[in-house]
Design a protein that fits this description.
The protein is an all-alpha fold and 196 residues long. It has one domain: Ferritin (Up-down Bundle). It has seven helices and no strands. Helix 3 packs antiparallel against helix 4, helix 3 packs parallel to helix 7 and helix 4 runs antiparallel to helix 6. The chain is globular, with a radius of gyration of 16 Å. It starts with a helix and ends in a 5-residue tail after the last helix.
Length: 196
């Protein structure tokens, strides 16, 4: 297993093939191969975040804590995380980096995280807050202009997830006018609570 820091600094040992989809489809070729090291570090971190998201939503679906509407939200969020992962992994592959896969990380959750509807919803809000902050930090932190818009679009989707699960908890679906951006080190540290 890779440490979180090794993942961010060095990437993973397995190569994931395929073409980019969605928001990052236009960031290929020579532009991808020339991404600066800082941009690649952000992409590796975001790949780990997407893997965590997919794992969380997969576990939540298995636990079946919701009725039909909540289950649809879980399934759609898992689908979105998969598309985000595929796009990010393709950019890393195009840059000669081997993106992490779910087999490279061990995920851990608080005790009872999937035992009740409220527990799943609370953890979804916590994770989506982390995901949104990490993407906003990446939008600010990456140098390649082609990545900025694509990452902002994924951040918008993470904000949609956050709103949906806030609503399921009975909280306002939106609150802050300017959600905080997490610098890469803070996002990596926050990710460490769920990965090893």
């Amino acid at each position: 297993m890779l440490s979180r820091r090794a993942l961010v600094r060095n990437g993973a040992a397995l190569l994931v093939g395929g073409s980019a989809v969605g928001a990052l489809a236009g960031t290929g070729g020579a532009a991808t191969a020339a991404l600066p090291d800082g941009d690649l570090a952000y992409l590796r971190l975001l790949v780990a975040i997407e893997l965590l998201g997919a794992d969380f939503y997969g576990n939540a679906l298995k636990a079946q804590p919701y009725g039909a509407d909540g289950t649809k939200a879980l399934a759609r969020a898992r689908f979105n995380e998969g598309e985000h992962y595929t796009s990010l992994a393709a950019v890393l592959t195009g840059a000669g980096q081997a993106p992490a896969t779910a087999d490279d990380l061990d995920f851990s959750y608080p005790s009872g995280a999937f035992s009740t509807t409220a527990a799943v919803s609370r953890l979804a809000v916590e994770l989506e807050t982390l995901f949104l902050g990490a993407y906003l930090g990446a939008v600010d932190g990456v140098a390649a202009p082609a990545l900025k818009l694509a990452l902002a679009r994924i951040a918008a989707n993470q904000a949609q997830h956050l709103s949906a699960f806030c609503a399921l908890l009975g909280r306002p679906p939106f609150d802050l006018s300017f959600p905080p951006a997490l610098p890469i080190a803070d996002a990596s540290d926050a990710l460490g609570a769920y990965t090893s």
